[in-house]
Write a structure and sequence with these properties.
By secondary structure, the chain is an alpha/beta fold. It has 2 domains: 5-145, Rossmann fold, CATH 3.40.50; 149-315, Lactate dehydrogenase/glycoside hydrolase, family 4, C-terminal (L-2-Hydroxyisocaproate Dehydrogenase, Chain A, domain 2), CATH 3.90.110. The chain has helices spanning 16-28, 41-52, 95-111, 125-136, 149-163, 196-202, 208-230, 235-249, 294-315; strands at 5-12, 33-37, 62-65, 74-79, 117-120, 143-145, 170-171, 174-175, 183-184, 190-191, 194-195, 254-263, 269-280, 283-287. The strands form 4 sheets. The chain has a 6-stranded parallel beta sheet with strand order 3-2-1-4-5-6. It has a 3-stranded antiparallel beta sheet with strand order 7-10-11. Strand 12 and strand 13 (269-280) form a beta hairpin. It starts with a strand and ends with a helix.
């Protein structure tokens, strides 16, 4: 196994998500080396050049286009490659196209005997995290997806707006599929330790059920609305990639709702799901056992069943 350079990141796929992630990581100062890889080598070269021109305003860094041979010592390999979600298309509609793309990309990564973390960002992220875990041969703790990190940030943002409070003080998770069957884990939400409903009443809100339903729907439909308005989502997910990389590089042991393989947790196995996990230098350390209510647990099982059916129908692994 290649020795890992903790200051090096590789990004495979230089579309809007990959390029935005590269830009965000350049600004973070976490890495001193970044290689960009794309099926269109000219695109990777152009993005590397464009981002490099901002280095006089940032920290010193070597940014270049490369090949799979350049990923062997990367601490984190970020995979954003895949077809984008089109207006009116669900993330699950992307399955066959992107599983096909992954069946060419992941074996190329596996050949290099990499020692780093494999971070899957392409959609549908839970299905592709499962696909990457099966095809890469990496230990499962070193294969994770961006999961519902962005969805959870959207939930925190909307709750902060609703309650007129700093969204960083809101502790909440979207769990399950990063997609239409996702679940807002309302029973676990608090604002700096104060249970959500109690905080709502303190702020003068009493129509809890209606407000929570509306906010959960707004979170779920955020991507559809952005895609309809501007064609694609990329800034929010780029900042989510930066946050996950930060937790890994700094060995923060941060709790983030990333996508990972399930082995009996919550009575679920045979798929990857987005659930809160401790994330650090070795990838996923352990999942956090949320105390979900009966309805949330039932919906989580439905979400898992949806994904497992897609795996059977479309993945073939």
């Amino acid at each position: 196994m290649a020795e890992v350079n903790s200051r090096k990141v590789a990004i495979i796929g230089c579309g809007m998500v990959g390029a935005s992630s590269a830009f965000s990581l350049m600004q973070s100062g976490m890495f001193s080396e970044m290689v960009l890889i794309d099926a269109n080598q000219k695109r990777a070269e152009g993005e590397a050049m464009d981002i490099s021109h901002g280095l006089p305003f940032a920290k010193p860094m070597d940014i270049y286009d490369g090949t799979y041979d350049d990923i062997t010592d990367a601490a984190i390999i970020v995979v954003t490659a895949g077809a984008g979600q089109k207006p009116g298309e669900t993330r699950l509609d992307l399955v066959r196209k992107n599983v096909g793309i992954f069946k060419s990309i992941i074996p190329e990564i596996a050949k290099r005997d990499c020692g780093g973390i494999l971070l899957i960002v392409a959609n549908p992220v839970d299905i592709l995290t499962y696909t990457a875990a099966k095809l890469s041969g990496f230990p499962e703790n070193r294969v994770l997806g961006s999961g519902t990190v962005l969805d959870s940030a959207r939930l925190k943002y909307l709750l902060g707006e609703h309650l007129n409070v700093d969204s960083r003080s809101v502790h909440s998770f979207i769990i399950g599929e990063h997609g239409d069957s996702e679940i807002a884990a309302w029973s676990t939400v608090n604002v700096s330790g104060v249970p959500l409903y109690k905080f709502c009443e303190m702020r003068g809100y009493r129509d809890h059920e209606d407000a929570m339903l509306r906010i959960a729907e707004d979170v779920k439909n955020s991507a559809y609305r952005i895609i309809e308005d501007k064609g694609a989502t990329y800034y929010g997910i780029a900042m989510s990639v930066r946050r996950i990389c930060e937790a890994i590089v700094r060995d923060e042991k941060s709790i983030l709702p990333v996508s990972s393989m399930m082995h009996g947790q919550y009575g679920i196995e045979g798929c990857a799901l987005s659930m809160p996990a401790i994330v650090g230098a070795d990838g996923i350390e352990t999942l956090i056992p949320l105390e979900l209510d009966e309805d949330e647990l039932s919906k989580l099982h439905e979400s898992a069943d949806t994904l497992k059916q897609v795996i059977v129908d479309s993945v073939g692994l």
